[in-house]
């Protein structure tokens, strides 16, 4: 694999993957590198695996290149796994981090600390022409706080307390967060796959 297309327009994500793949001599491209737009891909899957696969395979068929796509979100045990694949739009069609956080806290009102277990999940899918799609999954275990804390991060970070920490994900520095994040663990697996090829 000489080139890998990351199915995103998020420059931060592209930089993360660039750091990982550059040492293997793999050139990283993103959707920002193509004039021809990919139409919005409907994520119709019911799992992170299905949505990552749909994105990766759709983009791979369009550009005929190996493609990496990810799907990630928050899974809260007391909410039967919600928000799950709907994490980005949990409170409605428009992505709104504050509204999403508020909805989780509202639905967990009265739930005791011991039952507020949750995890961030990230699934990476690599689709290559004429090969089965390959997956890597990373998780970050923790619990949901009763009130938001911290200014760093985004999404559900202010209400997520990683296991073994006294600070929320939004109170950690970017370096600390990247050491324990679900995406980091998924990328560690991806690196193992790269080194075994």
A few lines on this structure:
This protein has 197 residues and is an alpha/beta fold.
Descriptive notes:
The chain has 197 residues and is α/β, with parallel strands linked by helices. The chain has a single domain (3-196), classed as Maf protein (Alpha-Beta Complex). Helix content is 31%, strand content 22%. The chain has 5 helices and 6 strands, in the order βαβαβαβββαα. A hairpin with a 6-residue loop joins strand 4 and strand 5 (134-144). The radius of gyration is 17 Å and the shape is globular. The N and C termini lie close together (10 Å). The mean pLDDT is 91.
Tally of individual domains: 1
Strand order in the sheet with the most strands: 2-1-3-4-5-6
Order of helices and strands: EHEHEHEEEHH
Class by alpha and beta content: alpha/beta
Strand content: 15-25%
CATH level-1 class:
Alpha Beta
Strand tally is 6
The helix fraction, in percent, is 25-40%
The CATH architecture can be named as Alpha-Beta Complex
The number of helical runs is 5
Taking the alpha carbons of the first and last residues, their distance comes to 10 Å
Q: Could you tell me the CATH topology label.
A: Maf protein
Could you tell me the mean pLDDT? 91
Largest sheet: 6 strands, mixed
Radius of gyration computed on alpha carbons: 17 Å
- In the predicted model, the low-confidence regions spanning at least 5 consecutive residues are none
Keywords:
single chain, 197 residues, alpha/beta, Maf protein, six-stranded mixed beta sheet, 6 strands, dITP/XTP pyrophosphatase, hydrolase, ribonucleoside triphosphate phosphatase activity
């Amino acid at each position: 694999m000489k080139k890998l297309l990351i199915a995103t327009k998020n420059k931060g994500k592209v930089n993360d993957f660039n750091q990982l793949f550059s040492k293997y001599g793999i050139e990283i491209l993103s959707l920002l590198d193509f004039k021809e737009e990919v139409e919005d891909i409907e994520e119709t899957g019911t799992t992170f695996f299905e949505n990552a696969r749909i994105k990766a395979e759709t983009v791979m068929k369009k550009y005929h290149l190996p493609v990496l796509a990810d799907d990630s979100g928050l899974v809260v045990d007391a909410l039967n796994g919600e928000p799950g694949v709907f994490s980005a739009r949990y409170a409605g069609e428009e992505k709104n981090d504050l509204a999403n956080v508020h909805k989780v806290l509202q639905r967990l009102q009265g739930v005791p600390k011991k039952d507020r277990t949750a995890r961030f999940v990230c699934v990476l899918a690599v689709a290559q022409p004429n090969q089965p799609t390959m997956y890597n999954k990373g998780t970050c275990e923790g619990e949901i706080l009763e009130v938001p804390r911290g200014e760093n991060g985004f999404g559900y970070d202010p209400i997520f307390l990683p296991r073994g920490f006294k600070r929320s994900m939004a109170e950690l520095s970017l370096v600390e967060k990247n050491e324990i994040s679900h995406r980091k663990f998924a990328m560690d697996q991806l690196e193992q796959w790269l080194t075994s090829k």
